[in-house]
Design brief:
heterotrimer; A mainly alpha; B alpha/beta; C mainly alpha; B: alpha/beta; Rossmann fold; four-stranded antiparallel β-sheet; 38% helix; globular; C: mainly alpha; ABC transporter involved in vitamin B12 uptake, BtuC; two-stranded antiparallel sheet; 12 helices; 4 strands
Chain lengths: 350, 259, 294
């Protein structure tokens, strides 16, 4: 299959995707649109998280911090001064936030940059260590961000959070950003830069000996992951229209971890599948938490059961199927072609 | 005249243990030198210091007139010293050609942005890197295995691949740590020839650690012997093989020493 | 701040620190042998507390039966945790173990949520621990004094086991060289189970005292203390039991004193522990009792 043909297939798929989104946007129910938006945002989050944990092989447990920074940055910049006045009842938000008001797209870019800047700052301590230490330090940073959001009332409105955000996020935004993230991040992974990251994952000493600067490569991954996580945070904020520090706990990190592990640690396709399964599964499992009627019996709903099932799924996957659904493989046109050819009983031309 | 590579009075201590003591060595451009000694003599530690993986407790390392003692490994590689490892450290889950392409990373021109945006400049460079890597594999007779997972290769070829990967960084000096360990005699002869071809083609300086005496005597111009972290002898293969100190270091002083 | 108040805070700090110390020991022992951060360790506090509550309320056991029973039960849960979540992954990459630990932690918390409910339950603090001593201007809850004493007694008991028994020797050997210990014919799985038993029992003791100190218990009560105890273990030098104890006391003192001296920053209390952690990892990652990195 020639590169040109693959390009055409890619473009065609994009048209198909956005065509479907158009149809849902026009004719879908509010519920369906909400789920699709969720999936879109989670795809961005999962794919950027996979870049660090899957491709670079680092156990980064602090993405909740980057998402929080993105969410708050985007919210604070896009709210009008009047809206801020309504929210900050305990004490007026600090200048210049009190007067600033930018278009949504600008707030998103700012969200990405803010998260990336924070990632840049913490790279220096974080990337000095590996393994468990890196896990704990990143976890710590995620927690520190949350605590700061809780305590910094003049900036974030503390535990009260920000309400009444304008629901800017629609299918075009959530899936547009998701598509951009997937394309851009996958290009990075496929490039020589991605090879350097994978080499660090495989054997960091050998990578060093071949001229790879681990700090540079890992910081790059870190910044890009944070950038997209920040933007996704902004999208999330303007999707659920209310944010508070309680939204950005380790629980959020845990959800992302489930997505990429079940999908396949190291695979972008896996991350996408994981995000879809998680969002859809999360919705589907809601029924477990509601009372169910079967005939004349009513099975009472059990709140919290969803998380029990998710935790069980994660554990079962890691114990018995640690490679997840895709392993480290990607779904590609070449792969589909070989499957198709085999189905038709012909051999793929070498 | 400035020596190509020089280690001056290098010492490395781990707590109270002196792994390498007052070790000095000079290499001229294009030489093929062997570093031998019993297990635990400090040979790999010396390699680790040369490549920046360990910092000397005392002494300097000079490469092409520059003091590289405190530089990190990736910079030393960029400056032209490459190595292989005692235990194979290939990027197992990556393909054979991908292993080689990593070696081209430090000299990459296009930025990560160019990569992410899919700019033509980047695509051209990726093509160039792939072609260069495939060429390296061809010269080593490994091109037919380019897409194979590195860990699937038979042992002898894995060792060879490590050497090709190191050469792909375009070094001025190559450090080989037990290149023929675990190989059968045929493979050893083949690798011997391969190393000779590399030297003829690029004039590269090579320092190698080995335990196989036949291999070492056959291929090295000059041999340095270490024991207990210190130099005990240096000379041509003939001189070394008849040096009583060397013999006793390897074989011990007992009359029942084995061959 | 007056001298009396300062002294009160020191005592509070030591008391809090003693609880962190008990919990930290479990982390450090498991890490020493398995090189695993047992994320689910903190949740054992919750298990012990609920076990005690139900023993007292459902079976009307007096506290001096209920508490030791709860400790033993929690020890058993610790062994079960290893058997189910960690033993199958002995040969797996470290990241898998960490994920399993996180999964186990969330599973325990949410299972408790589902089975018991999220409404905080009051913990029945026995009279024995509820008296208040007056020394001059100081009013001290007797529990505050008992905690460090009990901690030290338990730690001494543990150190005896670790340094004076054969099982303890095996544990120390396993933490130095896992494979070699196995080659010496020692049943590693049993030693590891013992490690979990001891560590979990200590955490359970800490959990019960924690529940008496902060008597509203809920399924997520172990999260923050667990995390802080882990930080204490790192501060002291992860893998080192004495270090864990030192780290625990140090962290408890710092936490109380920082809030006492800088009351404006009280809300950032939890963040301090993490900042201390980051500081330690930056400047002395091997901790107080660890070897300085060359």
């Amino acid at each position: 299959m020639s590169d040109k043909f693959k390009s055409r297939l890619n473009v065609a798929s994009l048209f198909l995707l956005f065509g479907l989104l158009f149809l849902f946007n026009r004719y879908g129910s509010g519920y369906q649109i909400r789920i699709l938006n969720n999936i879109g945002v989670f795809i961005t989050l999962a794919v950027s998280y996979n870049l660090i944990n899957g491709v670079c092989g680092l156990l980064h447990l602090g993405p909740n911090g980057f998402i929080a920074i993105g969410a708050y940055t985007s919210a604070l910049l896009s709210m009008t001064p009047a809206e801020k006045q309504l929210n900050f009842i305990l004490g007026q938000v600090i200048w210049p936030l009190s007067v600033i008001h930018v278009p949504f797209v600008v707030s998103l870019i700012a969200a990405g940059i803010a998260a990336a800047f924070f990632a840049f700052l913490i790279s220096f301590p974080v990337l000095r260590v590996r393994g468990d230490y890196l896990a704990i330090v990143t976890l710590g940073f995620g927690e520190v961000v949350r605590v700061l959001c809780n305590a910094g009332e003049r900036v974030t409105n503390g535990p009260l959070g920000l309400k009444g955000l304008y629901p800017h996020t629609n299918l075009w935004w959530s899936w547009g950003v998701a598509t951009l993230a997937v394309v851009v991040i996958q290009r990075l992974i496929d490039s020589n830069y991605g090879l350097a990251m994978k080499a660090i994952r495989e054997d960091e000493d050998a990578a060093r000996a071949m001229g790879v600067n681990p700090f540079r490569s890992l910081m790059l991954a870190f910044l890009i992951s944070a950038f997209f996580s920040g933007i996704a945070g902004g999208l999330l904020a303007h999707l659920i229209t209310t944010i508070s520090p309680a939204l950005f706990t380790f629980f959020l990190t845990f959800n992302l971890l489930i997505m990429i592990v079940v999908g396949g640690l190291g695979s972008t396709t896996g991350a996408i599948i994981g995000a879809v399964l998680f969002s859809w599964g999360g919705e589907a499992l809601r029924i477990v938490e509601q009372p169910m009627e079967i005939g004349s019996f009513t099975i009472p709903g059990i709140p919290g059961m969803r998380m029990v099932i998710f935790s069980l799924v994660l554990m079962l996957v890691i114990l018995f199927a640690s490679k997840g659904i895709m392993g480290r493989n990607e779904l590609s046109w070449d792969y589909l072609e070989s499957k198709f050819a085999r189905f038709r009983g012909t051999k793929t031309p070498q | 005249m400035n020596p190509f590579f020089q280690m001056r009075h290098v010492t490395r201590r781990f707590g109270g243990l002196e792994a390498v003591g007052d070790f000095s060595i000079t290499l001229e451009r294009g030489e093929l030198v062997g570093l031998i000694g019993p297990n635990g003599a400090g040979k790999t530690t010396t390699f680790n210091m040369m490549t920046g993986m360990l910092r000397p407790t005392a002494g300097d390392i000079i490469w092409k007139g520059e003091n590289i003692t405190r530089l990190p490994p990736h910079l030393i590689t960029a400056k032209g010293i490459a190595r292989t490892f005692q235990n194979i450290k290939l990027f197992s889950d990556m393909s054979v050609v991908e292993n080689i392409m990593v070696s081209c990373h430090y000299s990459i021109d296009s930025s990560f942005l160019a990569a992410m945006l899919g700019l033509p400049k980047h695509k051209r460079e990726e093509k160039r890197i792939r072609e260069h890597s495939l060429k390296c594999l061809e010269e080593a007779g490994l091109a037919h295995l380019a897409s194979e997972r590195a860990q699937n290769l038979p042992y002898g070829l894995q060792r060879k691949l490590e050497i090709v990967r190191a050469i792909a960084t375009r070094p001025g000096m190559l450090l080989l740590d037990e290149p023929v360990a675990g190989m059968n005699p045929t493979e050893k002869i083949e690798l011997s020839a391969f190393i000779r071809r590399i030297r003829e083609k690029s004039g590269i300086t090579i320092l190698l650690i080995e335990h196989d005496m036949k291999f070492v005597m056959n291929i090295c111009q000059r041999i340095r012997v270490m024991n207990y972290g210190r130099s005990i002898a240096e000379g041509t293969p003939d001189e070394i093989s008849s040096n009583p100190e060397v013999i006793s270091a390897y074989l011990g002083d007992t009359p029942h020493a084995q061959d | 701040m007056s001298a009396t108040l300062f002294l009160q805070q020191i005592i509070n700090g030591i008391s809090l620190g003693s609880l962190y110390a008990l919990i930290a020991i479990g982390y450090t022992m498991v890490y020493g042998i398995l090189r695993l951060i047992n994320f689910a360790h903190g949740d054992l506090l919750m298990v012990a507390a609920y076990a005690a509550i139900y023993e007292i309320s459902l079976f009307s056991l007096p506290w001096f039966f209920a508490f030791p029973l709860a400790i033993i039960a929690t020890g058993a849960v610790g062994i079960l945790l290893d058997r189910v979540a960690y033993r199958p992954l002995r040969q797996a990459p470290r990241i898998s173990l960490l994920i399993s630990a996180i999964g186990a932690s969330f599973l325990m918390e949410n299972l408790a949520l589902v089975l018991i409910g999220g409404v905080p339950k009051p913990f029945p603090r026995p009279h024995f621990f509820s008296r208040v001593i007056e020394v001059g201007n100081l009013h001290i809850l007797v529990l505050t004094i008992y905690s460090p004493v009990i901690t030290l007694l338990l730690v001494m008991g543990l150190l005896y086991i670790v340094f004076k028994t054969r099982a303890g020797k095996a544990m120390r050997a396993a933490s130095l060289d896992f494979e070699a210990t196995r080659l010496m014919g020692i049943n590693l799985d049993r030693i590891i189970a013992l490690t979990f038993l001891l560590g979990s029992s200590l955490a359970a003791a800490g959990g019960i005292m924690w529940a008496m100190k902060y008597p509203q218990i809920n399924p997520f009560m172990g999260v923050l203390p667990g995390l802080k105890a882990f930080i204490a273990a790192v501060i002291g030098g992860i893998g080192n039991i004495v270090g864990a104890v030192l780290g625990g006391f140090l962290l408890g003192l710092c936490e109380i004193l920082i809030v006492a001296l800088l009351p404006n920053l009280a809300e950032y209390r939890d963040a301090f522990a993490f900042l201390i952690l980051i500081g330690v990892l930056l400047f002395r990652p091997t901790g107080i009792m660890g070897e300085p990195l060359t």
